[in-house]
């Protein structure tokens, strides 16, 4: 091999070795974001038929009329309502359970720690059918309340684990220092413990909302014909046609999540300075 060609090959191999991690990261991000980019792209499509799977031509009709598909906004409103209530209930209960498990020693604590993980490890089909059996056995009519109870139940474990992890990294000497400076227990909790644990509680709440809003399997088992959530609407619509407005809602949810992450990163960097 000529000396010049050999030098070029060595240079290319060296460049590839130096940038291999960056290339792998770009490919991984592309793989993760590709479905979202497709959803955004097809929110501007004007399909030639009922199914929005093939690009036809650019249009803003779906963005100008996001509730144009019958029943879509009602399903979205129900998902948002259940998601917010489930997030509130699971966050309050889960935070209290996390504090109890992290700060107190009591009989059955190890068993409780183990049982907390069971809903996370249970398949959704099993959990959904079990809850349906329970509600039917107790004579509770299926609808929004049974969906809400189910969502609070499976979100609770994720909140407990997230908040407990934050509490485990909390230095107890900070509270002791506050009480040495004549703060009582309530003042030490409100001014020292809660602000330090709050990022973990917020992360747990966002995770709970995401899980509740996105759930289909457990919801489908415990819903009534008049309580159709957004994931159930999308699944039902996929068999007879996919309105472009579904992509519009998906795009808006993606942009809201992205904005929340960027704001969180910005606030974190500002505090770090």
Would you summarize the structure shown here?
Helices cover 77% and strands 0% of the residues. The protein has helices at residues 3-18, 20-42, 61-64, 72-103, 109-121, 124-138, 144-168, 172-180, 185-214, 217-222, 230-238, 244-272. It starts with a helix and ends with a helix.
Outline the secondary-structure elements:
Layout: H1 3-18, H2 20-42, H3 61-64, H4 72-103, H5 109-121, H6 124-138, H7 144-168, H8 172-180, H9 185-214, H10 217-222, H11 230-238, H12 244-272
Helix pairs in contact: 2-12, 4-7, 4-9, 4-11, 5-7, 7-9, 8-9
Question: How would you describe what is shown here?
Answer:
With 273 residues, the chain is mainly alpha-helical. Helices cover 77% and strands 0% of the residues. The protein contains twelve helices and no strands. It has helices at residues 3-18, 20-42, 61-64, 72-103, 109-121, 124-138, 144-168, 172-180, 185-214, 217-222, 230-238, 244-272. It starts with a helix and ends with a helix.
């Amino acid at each position: 091999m000529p000396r010049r060609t050999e030098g070029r090959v060595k240079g290319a191999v060296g460049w590839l070795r130096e940038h291999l991690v960056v290339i792998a990261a770009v490919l991984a991000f592309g793989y993760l974001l590709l479905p979202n980019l497709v959803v955004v792209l097809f929110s501007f499509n004007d399909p030639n038929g009922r199914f929005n799977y093939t690009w036809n031509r650019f249009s803003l009709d779906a963005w100008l009329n996001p509730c144009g598909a019958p029943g879509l906004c009602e399903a979205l409103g129900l998902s948002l309502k259940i998601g917010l209530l489930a997030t509130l209930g699971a966050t309050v209960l889960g935070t209290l359970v996390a504090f109890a498990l992290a700060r107190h020693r009591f009989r059955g604590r190890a068993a409780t720690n183990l049982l907390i993980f069971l809903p996370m490890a249970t398949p959704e089909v099993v959990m959904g059918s079990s809850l349906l059996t329970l509600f039917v056995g107790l004579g509770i009519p299926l609808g929004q309340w049974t969906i809400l109870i189910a969502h609070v139940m499976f979100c609770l474990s994720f909140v407990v684990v997230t908040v407990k992890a934050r509490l485990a990294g909390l230095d107890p000497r900070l509270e002791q220092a506050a009480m040495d400076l004549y703060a009582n227990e309530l003042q030490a909790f409100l001014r020292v413990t809660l602000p330090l644990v709050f990022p973990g509680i917020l992360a747990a709440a966002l995770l709970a909302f995401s899980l509740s809003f996105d759930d289909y399997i457990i919801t489908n088992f415990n819903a009534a014909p008049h309580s159709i959530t957004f994931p159930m609407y999308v699944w039902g619509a996929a068999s007879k046609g996919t309105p472009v407005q579904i992509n519009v809602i998906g795009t808006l949810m993606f942009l809201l999540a992205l904005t929340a992450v960027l704001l969180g990163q910005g606030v974190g960097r500002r505090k770090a300075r």
